[in-house]
Amino acid sequence: MFFKRRGGEKARWRLILVLELIKAMCRTIMFWITGRRMVIENHGAERPTIPEQQPVPETENERATLSSAGDTETTVLEERSKEWSMPRTGMKLPVLPTQGAESITAFLSKRVISADDIKIASQLVRKISSYQGQLAEMMWIARPVVYALAMQRLQGTGNNRKSYDWRPWVLGFGMEVVARELGKKEFRERTVGGWRGMTGLEKEELRRRGWGMAWWGMRGAFYENFTKSWIRGFAGKLKGKPLLDIVGGIVEDYDYLWDEYYFSTSTM
Q: Which contacts of 203-209 are long-range, i.e. CB under 8 A and separated by 24 or more positions?
């Protein structure tokens, strides 16, 4: 807002362009130093926490000492004392629940692990080996820079309805659609098993990018020509109605953010 007040829309978009260039440079560096892997929002999969196993008391004195620590610890020790040790390997098997089939199913489901749970970090996101996949990722990184540059260049024209111009919006949204389709083609053709061969982290990132495309409805010409009038009309209908008036006020507050601040709708 400071740059907008001092230099108008052109200065505002010049600042946005600089910030997007810095972000794109950082993402490009991440893309290359990780061995040309997809840039992800979530920086690692959550691993299941393995509780630390406490030693089973062997003598009566040890059991008496540990039992005085509290009822909770006593219950744990009693359960662990019932564990069965395998003769050859010495591995201890936990006690199965006896309350019914549902409790046994729940017990076993907690101990099921997937392939992602045992993979090392470098295998959770595969390397992009083809030029097509690398082009898709670079287009995804560059799309906010291209959109901001087009909006900044548009401010220098004499058009009084710059925000209604469809060219920056079509350019930015088109780049995202092309990058997404090329990326999906890369996974289908070069991943063993296609979509099923993708890791959970890769699926989560593609899903996040897909939902992020919906924010294009809150930017540029699409917002000015369609979304803005619909939101304000919806908020206006709620005015003067009990309780719903509060919802209308909240929508109007968010509409101000979407209208005035670029990064309130930016997922890039």
A: 204/40, 204/42, 205/38, 205/40, 205/41, 205/42, 208/41, 209/140, 209/180
